[in-house]
Amino acid sequence: MRRLALAALCVLLLAGCGSAAAAPGSDRILRYGADLTPGGGPIFDPVQSSRSLTPNQNSWLDLIFDRLIYRSDDGTLRPGLLAKWEAPDPLTAVLTVREGVRFQDGTPLDAEAIRFNWERGLAEPTLSKTPDFRAFESMEVVSPLVLRVRYTAPVTAYAFNVTFTRSSAFGQIASPTAVREKGAGFNAAPVGAGPYRFERLDRGALLSVRRWDGYWDPAAQHLDGVDFVQNGRGAPMISALAAGRIDLAPVSLSDIPVVDSREGLTTLVKPGNEVLYFQMRLDRPPFSVPEVREALSWAFDRDMVNDVAYAGAGQATQTMYFPGSPYHSADLEGPPRYDPVRARELLAAAGYPEGFRIGMLVQNQPVMVAAAEVLQAQLDQVGVEVEINVSPNYINDALAKPDSIMASTINYSVPDSFLVSKARLGLGYSSPAFDAAYAKTLGATGREAEIAANTALQTVEVAEKPMLFLAQEPIAVGMRAEVGGVTEVRGDLEGPDLRNASLGPRP
Fold first, then answer.
1. pLDDT tens digits, residue range 193-217?
2. Neighbours of 260 (CB within 10 A)
């Protein structure tokens, strides 16, 4: 979370784009504060966008490209560009494209367009493939609107619940005509099938999108456009909001009271999709001893971690699916597990009556450092001495296999990030039971089967404790009172969902 806004600029009507003109300062142009500078600025081509370092990029990518499937906060899936999706068997997905959808250049969005985009993604060597596309076998255009996909492993649940609901190379579809005509220039003039078309990018200053009149769901378009304008977080952002130079922007947790105290401003705080965790090196003592991991699970006061790291606005959690996830299990979560006396007793029973010393690698972020210092103090109470190593090059340092790690991971509807983190950081976790349970989550289809598979996976995680989960991050945006329709804030990279945003009369 780190961006905001500067000023609304005039809007130009581009001939042939099919969008109504909006005058400078139009009451129907939402002005969103954003940091447009990291990594050289926004990347728009779906097969390249995973390389972007620009926060909140999905807020504008969704407006330009839309999504194949919409996913609500409660895990419910709703048709987007796909009208229907089904798995006739564990290795097959059959996708039906919504009838009558066109890209912003008039090209039909059909099964062939999706096949073209996915072939591009599969051929891109720098693109990190999701589990379903790592198991990809073949595609067949059955009819103009029907695409059949075959996999080498049962991964359809992951495809439906994660890949097709996210802003990604395989979840966002670009116009094949525009890609072929523009080549490398597509990134400077992206064409999707979303509700708003790309208009202009002034690097480091302004990104503008404007309403596209050919969108398949005009009832969802409440704006003439959105201007993403550059500003810094903190006092400059609050001043810009209060002065009416911007309408909406991400805010830091420490800024929430300040924003709420200003007349005409309010904040929306929602659970994010990241969770803090403590990861241990499991291929050597002391953490290779299961009883030691059990002991530490009683040593952490997760409510205090949430209070210090997130000003109490997050949610303490003890399982890999935090409260609010459609697969969270209250039974497995159980009551708070904080009992330092019991932790000492378990350590003594495991052969460590005097405790031990460890190093802890920490991402160089204020939230991570604050959480690490809390854990350091709590572990000291049970006889474990911790040396904190704050790393500006966390990923490379993690490959050196430190004793432990204080970090966060994105947790979507199925736990791919958990396994990716485990594999990438290589901290020695090997569990046939976990791997078997994880494989079943990827192929489970139907709500009951998905819940059962993910509950079984969590049961293994709770028993083996390869990671100790601590707290779910909160995400906040500040907005003026006239902003409506913004109800989902999905994470720092994802940003708020602006597809249903609206504006009332400005003062």
1. 999 999 999 988 999 999 999 999 9
2. 12
